[in-house]
TrEMBL record, chain A:
<dbReference type="InterPro" id="IPR010139">
    <property type="entry name" value="Imidazole-glycPsynth_HisH"/>
</dbReference>
<keyword id="KW-0368">Histidine biosynthesis</keyword>
<keyword id="KW-0028">Amino-acid biosynthesis</keyword>
<feature type="active site" description="Nucleophile">
    <location>
        <position position="77"/>
    </location>
</feature>
<keyword id="KW-0456">Lyase</keyword>
<feature type="domain" description="Glutamine amidotransferase">
    <location>
        <begin position="4"/>
        <end position="194"/>
    </location>
</feature>
<dbReference type="InterPro" id="IPR029062">
    <property type="entry name" value="Class_I_gatase-like"/>
</dbReference>
<keyword id="KW-0963">Cytoplasm</keyword>
<feature type="active site">
    <location>
        <position position="180"/>
    </location>
</feature>
From TrEMBL, chain B:
<comment type="similarity">
    <text>Belongs to the HisA/HisF family.</text>
</comment>
<dbReference type="InterPro" id="IPR013785">
    <property type="entry name" value="Aldolase_TIM"/>
</dbReference>
<dbReference type="InterPro" id="IPR006062">
    <property type="entry name" value="His_biosynth"/>
</dbReference>
<dbReference type="InterPro" id="IPR011060">
    <property type="entry name" value="RibuloseP-bd_barrel"/>
</dbReference>
<comment type="function">
    <text>IGPS catalyzes the conversion of PRFAR and glutamine to IGP, AICAR and glutamate. The HisF subunit catalyzes the cyclization activity that produces IGP and AICAR from PRFAR using the ammonia provided by the HisH subunit.</text>
</comment>
<feature type="active site">
    <location>
        <position position="130"/>
    </location>
</feature>
<feature type="active site">
    <location>
        <position position="11"/>
    </location>
</feature>
<dbReference type="Pfam" id="PF00977">
    <property type="entry name" value="His_biosynth"/>
</dbReference>
<keyword id="KW-0368">Histidine biosynthesis</keyword>
Length: 196, 263
């Protein structure tokens, strides 16, 4: 099986790659359109801001490439947000592959932004990506923007109200948390993605 | 519900983990990767590595061990030590660190925080603050604390600096209360409580943990998001699984390894 990590300048590419290596998969790091199209699985990592993230995909000529993919695609953290229609971060139009918008967390007493740390996952539907995921499993989050709960939500998390932790639409999937840094729960979810 | 984080801190010097008392007299505690794996297995929520002599020696962090840690560790970790530029930060993040922490270099040139936040997002940017209470009862910031011969007292007040770093783009603040560091008499709850009131980003307590009650007090009384400690974990005085079960009994939300069962 060939797995590629789209090199769009995100800084967590190394950790995602190591997490896949721990699962026995050597993923190629690439921004080459042909290599991305030919892969069995495509992962869009990314840490940073939505505007620069989309700008980088445009510079690399990858916007239409990603839109045209039919194999399973996984966006992680910012990578997930880029799969959505629009992000409030820098008022950015994103890839539009999952019909969702990305909003900023509203600061409230006792509610720090960014949402940083371990929080619990609640599956809201059954999906192969969530295989063996238990209610209340912990995942590691670091983000200031989030996707509301909607028809595309597979699992939600509570932080001053529910938001989407895992989303999917057709072959496009997203995880708001960092599976590569979510210990055994994260490894389980990455393994599920590899088995889609 | 977001859990409170337990964060072992590994001070790195010449490629080994060391521990000093009140930032002095360091002894070697073990190999970096061995200790990182041990804490991961015990249920640490995050790890912090400080290359403690990088800043006083005017060099950036040694990246070879950052990559070794990133390969084996599946929990987040933060790296600190003499990071002075966006390029140096990028290299550490690309080596696999999840966050970078700046302290002395941010005091030298506060714009560094703005630049890091613009380049990587605030969620990557941790600002460490070393703070001591002066004779006039005011808390003020210290610089170059990794080497006692180079440590400097600054006129900058701790809470003024804490407000400024948030405005500039700090996504998390680690407050090292130096008066209590390494002496295991408890976190500085008075200072941390004031810090909490001026800190709208995650706040991590550092310095003084000696007993499990000290962790509870920091979470319950000072409402910090995470508690960082070194000597009690390195020495085995407190085992992380015992600490987490204790905290859970005290109604502090913690991540236990199994989602079902105990919870």
């Amino acid at each position: 099986m060939s797995v590629v990590l789209v090199d769009a300048g995100g800084t967590n590419i190394g950790s995602v790659r190591y997490a896949l290596q721990r699962l026995g998969v050597d993923a190629a790091l690439t921004s080459d359109a042909a290599q991305i199209r030919a892969a069995d699985k495509v992962i869009l990592p990314g840490v940073g801001a939505a505007g620069p993230g989309m700008a980088r995909l445009r510079e690399l000529g990858l916007v239409d490439v990603i839109r045209s993919l039919t194999q399973p695609v996984l966006g992680v953290c910012l990578g997930m947000q880029l799969l959505c229609a629009h992000s409030a971060e820098g008022d950015t139009d994103c890839l539009g592959l999952i019909p969702a918008s990305v909003n900023r967390f509203e600061e409230a007493p006792g509610l720090c932004v960014p949402h940083m740390g371990w929080n619990r996952l609640s599956p809201v539907t059954t999906h192969p990506l969530l295989k063996h995921l238990e209610q209340g499993d912990w995942a590691y989050f670091v983000h200031s923007y989030a996707v509301p709960v909607g028809a595309y939500t597979l699992a939600s998390t509570d932080y001053g109200g529910g938001f989407s932790a895992v989303i999917a639409s057709a072959n496009f999937h997203g995880m708001q948390f960092h599976p590569e840094r979510s210990a055994s729960v994260g490894a389980k979810l990455l393994k599920n993605f590899l088995e889609l | 519900m977001l859990s409170r984080r337990i964060i072992p801190c590994l001070d790195v010097r010449e490629g080994k983990v060391v521990k000093g008392v009140r930032f002095r007299d360091h002894i070697v505690m073990g190999e970096i990767v061995d200790l990182a794996l041990r804490y991961r297995d015990e249920g640490a929520d995050e790890l912090v590595f400080y290359d403690i002599t990088a800043s006083p020696e005017g060099r950036s962090v040694d990246r070879s061990w950052v990559e070794r840690v990133a390969r084996v560790i599946d929990i987040p970790f933060c790296v600190a030590g003499g990071i002075r530029s966006v390029d140096e930060a990028r290299a550490v993040l690309h080596a696999g660190a999840d966050k970078i922490s700046v302290n002395s270099p941010a005091l030298e040139r506060p714009e560094l925080i703005d630049e890091l936040a613009a380049a990587f997002g605030v969620q990557c940017v941790v600002v460490g603050i070393d703070s001591m209470r002066d004779d006039d009862d005011e808390w003020r910031v210290r610089q170059y604390t990794g080497d006692p011969s180079k440590t400097r007292s600054l006129s900058r007040r701790t809470f003024d600096w804490m407000i400024e770093v948030q405005r500039r783009g700090a996504g998390e603040i680690v407050l090292n209360c130096m008066d209590s560091d390494g002496v295991r008499k408890g976190y500085d709850l008075a200072q941390l409580s004031v810090a909490r009131s001026v800190c709208s980003v995650p706040l991590i307590a550092s310095g003084g943990a000696g007993t499990m009650e000290h962790f509870r007090d920091a979470f319950v009384q000072a409402r910090v998001d995470g508690a960082l400690a070194a000597s009690v974990f390195h020495s085995g005085a407190i085992a992380i699984p015992d600490l987490k079960h204790y905290l859970q009994q005290q109604d502090v939300v913690v991540r236990l390894q199994e989602a079902s069962g105990h919870e």
